[in-house]
Amino acid sequence: MTSLSPQPSLSRIRIGSAPDSWGVWFPDDPQQVPWQRFLDEVAQSGYEWIELGPYGYLPTDPTVLTEETSRRGLKVSAGTVFTGLHHGESVWEKTWAHVADNAVLAQAMGAEHLVVIPSFWRDDKTGAVLEPDTLTPEQWRDLASLTERLGQRVREEYGLRIVVHPHADTHIDSEENVVRFLDATDSDLVSLCLDTGHYAYCGGDSVKLIETYGSRIGYLHLKQVDPEILADVRAKGTPFGPAVAQGVMCEPPKGVPELGPVLSAAQKLGVELFAIVEQDMYPCEPDAPLPIAMRTRAFLRSCGA
């Protein structure tokens, strides 16, 4: 358990939150809160930075979105895209079309990053197995080379940096696979979005990764897992979506990893970093996110952030 006693200021860490912390996983879903409520409540919670979330959830007209965010004192740190680049050249054009839509909006909103999430090997909503959970050597080569191409093109055309997000039920998940991916890609083109919850879910140590691969850490997602629920999820082989519904991702500081040491390690890197709170809660009751968000923001302030 992390102490709530005040900690030294984390001056290089820019704290924010995301639609994910309001139970938003899809552009449109009857179980999700309206986007206006998300914006109202994230501002009420004391955050000034947000991510765009799934493309189409927030308004995609930059003029409208700028007006809506500005009057609430909010700014955008990143957009998010989903990719399946291990499938090779056959998916490139479709992937780029999806990326370009997101990048146009992110750029227009003044964002600096594009969070890239690998495609799931089993469906995040139903748990249906879509493909093998391990990649062939050829698929690893395609994943690395096409991610580098994506990083270069996004930078050249939109001025954004991609940050690849290791994620449960994808092929970039465990320490072994994250390190393999980092070692296979150009550090100038590909950085990492370290999600502390997903990395712990898959057995990784966030502080160790920051200390070992600090120059590759370009962005943070702050999240914790409940160790008891995680043990049950692992024992039963529960897919990620149902595991989230079970409460595997929990409100800090009730889970692991301790976020204070993670933030301290990130501060020591000596670079400006976004640290965006993402507590997976899909689905959740509409009134649940706001009080959690307010408590989480207060907790992070006690850590110095």
Automatic annotation (TrEMBL):
InterPro entries assigned: IolE/XylAMocC-like, Xyl_isomerase-like_sf, Xyl_isomerase-like_TIM-brl
Signal peptide: none
Lineage top rank: taxon: Bacteria
Gene Ontology terms, MF aspect: isomerase activity
Domain Xylose isomerase-like TIM barrel: 39-293
Coiled coil region boundaries: none
Pfam families: AP_endonuc_2 (PF01261)
Record key words, sorted: Isomerase
TM regions (residue ranges): none
Protein name per Swiss-Prot or TrEMBL: Sugar phosphate isomerase
Organism expressing this protein natively: Streptomyces lincolnensis
Classification of source organism: Bacteria, Bacillati, Actinomycetota, Actinomycetes, Kitasatosporales
